[in-house]
Amino acid sequence: MKNIVLGVCVIFLGTLIRVPSVQGMVEGLYCGLENCYDVLGVTRDTEKIVISRAYRQLAKQNHPDRFQSEEDKATATAKFKVIATAYEILKDDEARVDYDYMLDHPEEHYRHYYHYYRRRMSPKVDVRLVIAVTISVISVFQYYTARFRWNSGVRYLATQPKYRKMALEYAEVEGMLDELRKTKKRNKEFIKTEEDRIIKVVLEENMDIRGGYAKPRVTDVLWVQLVVLPYTIALYFAWYFRWVWRFSIKREEFGQEEKLYLIRKNLGLSETQFESVTETEKDEWLKDELWKTDKFKAWKEEKIEERKRQMAESGRYKSERRYMKKYGTGRMYFDDS
């Protein structure tokens, strides 16, 4: 136990002791105890093009392949590494700034370690490239997900007798079935396959499917939305000020479009959800004047009460209440009705 406490104290005291430095150079950082500028024979005011020229000349002179003996090769290899390290530091603007700061402030030892290893350990990929790739992946995923939902909606409609009949009637009028009737392959399987294909084409071209299964548009993907974002924001502010001017200042009456917008906001529905609502239901909401806050609240309370009555009159709900009253909570309940 005493040895453990002693070890902890030694480690703590070691963190308070500064690692020796020579004229601002720290062993293990950058060029070690050598000055990177002196290694390349340049000064802190030297331009990058001159630094590159000095590096090429020194690298050529000290390349290990120029030496024959193993001892000379080892010496040249060590020197070549220092030259390459100095060049890597001085050619990078940010690394050079950190190095100059270390030379000017040798006492800030831990800061130098932090900046040095943060730069070495951080990924070299440009953050802008990462963001661009991420947005692209999201945009592609968005489009193909919407495309899949759209195709699912079309396939579902193609199985419904009502829409199959409408599609075939449209194909008959447009002459899309003429080639099928002229073909020599008259077996039922071939005719069924071709009819399904024609029905799908007709539905894709003519059906106005809204909501979550609407036909995908390139303008809905994230990339396009980000590009047109300034324009979208400008349109929103123009719409908002026009709304305030017309209905708050001039006190104009709401049109049907404005009424439906207020109804959608009161119901808490998104544009996609609201588009999937039938026109009959929208007409009922307009008839009930649900764009008015007081009438919407009354309508909502009425719907809640109606729902409670339906549940109270439900046979299954009554059975559950009887069970809970008799046995309480914590037991399994099976409904075999």
TrEMBL record:
The chain crosses the membrane at residues 222-241. InterPro entries: DnaJ_domain, DnaJ_domain_CS, DNAJC25-like, J_dom_sf. Residues 1-24 form the signal peptide. It is a multi-pass membrane protein. One of its GO terms (cellular component) is endoplasmic reticulum membrane. It is found in: Membrane. Its main location: membrane. Coiled coil: none annotated. Pfam families: DnaJ. Residues 35-103 form the J domain. Keywords: Chaperone, Membrane, Signal, Transmembrane, Transmembrane helix. PROSITE patterns: DNAJ_1, DNAJ_2. GO terms for biological process: protein folding. Belongs to the DNAJC25 family. This is DnaJ subfamily C member 25. It comes from Folsomia candida (Springtail).
